[in-house]
Design brief:
Strand content: 5-15%
CATH architecture of the largest domain: 3-Layer(aba) Sandwich
Number of domains: 2
Order of helices and strands: HHHHHHEHEEEHEHEH
Shape: elongated
CATH superfamily of the largest domain: P-loop containing nucleotide triphosphate hydrolases
Largest sheet: 6 strands, mixed
Bound molecules: guanosine-5'-diphosphate, magnesium ion
Structural class: alpha/beta
Number of strands: 6
CATH topology of the largest domain: Rossmann fold
Oligomer: single chain
Strand order of the largest sheet: 2-3-4-1-5-6
Helix content: 40-55%
Radius of gyration: 28 Å
CATH class of the largest domain: Alpha Beta
Length: 311
């Protein structure tokens, strides 16, 4: 599971240099030589710890589930993150090299003050070079934090026109109140609920604004958001409101169903909502108000997802 909430704040070059040199300015030593070596070692430790902390806080992006890779790529750019982390790695080894060499120079008798001054100058110039990457990583952190935490439980995505009863269904079957997260790159929200079918936890996702209108009319960013859903879903429940109280004629709802079927390779279950208001039963029908038909729907979901209750 991807947990961007753990990503730390990233300092700018100036802040990082203040931190390292500030810490070094407080160290003591019996001789000028010793004091200089202690200062250099302090800068070395602060920088190494800092760079390692930032680099290690990021997951191994290549090993993330496709859903996250796609989402992160759209939100901030996977290559950009990798390049920025590589730049930090570079700065880390460069500054350590400078410090190791400087300590050796002091030990072998070079003027401590001059060595320190020159080392500080070179370190500062390296850190300043990666300032854009540091700033980018801090911005990326803010965006990545918005990415919903999803589990790798089997996932049911709920689709259908607005007001057909998607949210009501997700709430009805969820053991806990659905969590709301946002897509980091659109204004769209994701509602995530969890239910159990025969002891197997199922993640149920409702994404208002994505699979509730013709896909072919979507802009690029929405199409990519839909692509993220493709990586995530194991099954789709397409809800049709035959009463049309949702405000959309049944023909439009059916044509969206066809489009969803064409765009997704997973099983798509079509079902009627609001069964308490009509008698149409040529498709499975359920009511989130009375609870009628809900167990039937979950049973079909279980079959389509290939969930076996034998354990
Ligand atoms: N009678 C009845 N009304 C329902 C049912 N499910 C949803 N509704 C109503 O339909 C409207 C839209 O439901 P909602 O779940 O918000 O739809 P969504 O936009 O698809 O998420 C709300 O006023 C619900 O109370 C149902 O099973 N029976
Ligand atoms: Mg809704």
């Amino acid at each position: 599971m991807f947990e961007a909430k753990k990503l730390p704040t990233v300092l700018t070059a100036e802040e990082l240099l203040d931190k390292a040199f500030g810490r070094a300015s407080k160290v003591a030593g019996r001789t000028k030589k010793e004091k200089t070596i202690n200062k250099l070692s302090t800068v070395s430790n602060v920088l190494r710890d800092y760079f390692n902390k930032i680099i290690k806080s990021h997951p191994s992006y290549d090993n993330l589930p496709e859903f996250y890779k796609e989402m992160i790529d759209v939100a901030v750019g996977l290559r950009k993150i990798k390049k920025a982390l590589a730049a930090l790695d570079w700065a880390n080894s460069m500054t350590q090299k400078i410090i190791t060499k400087s300590i050796r120079d002091v030990k072998t008798g070079k003027n401590p003050e001059q060595v320190l001054k020159s080392a500080y100058g070179r370190i500062a110039s390296i850190i300043e070079q990666i300032d854009p990457e540091l700033r980018f990583l801090n911005e990326a952190k803010k965006i990545l934090r918005e990415i919903p935490s999803l589990t790798d439980d089997p996932t049911l995505v709920v689709a259908g026109y607005p007001n057909v009863g998607k949210s009501s269904f997700v709430s009805r079957i969820s053991s806990v109140k659905p969590e709301i997260a946002s897509y980091p790159f659109t204004t769209k929200k994701i509602y995530v609920g969890y239910t159990e079918i025969d002891g197997i936890r199922i993640q149920v996702i409702d994404t208002p604004g994505l699979l509730d209108r013709p896909i072919h009319k979507r802009n690029e960013i929405e199409k990519r958001a839909i692509l993220c859903l493709k990586h995530l879903s194991n099954c789709i429940l397409f809800i049709i409101d035959p009463t049309e109280t949702c405000g959309y004629p049944i023909e439009n709802q059916l044509s969206l169903l066809e489009e969803v079927k064409e765009n997704f390779e997973v099983p798509v279950i079509a079902a009627y909502s609001k069964a308490d208001m009509h008698d149409k039963r040529d498709l499975p029908a359920f009511s989130s108000v009375t609870g009628e038909g809900i167990d039937e729907i979950l049973k079909i979901v279980k079959e389509k997802m290939g969930i076996s209750s034998r354990r």
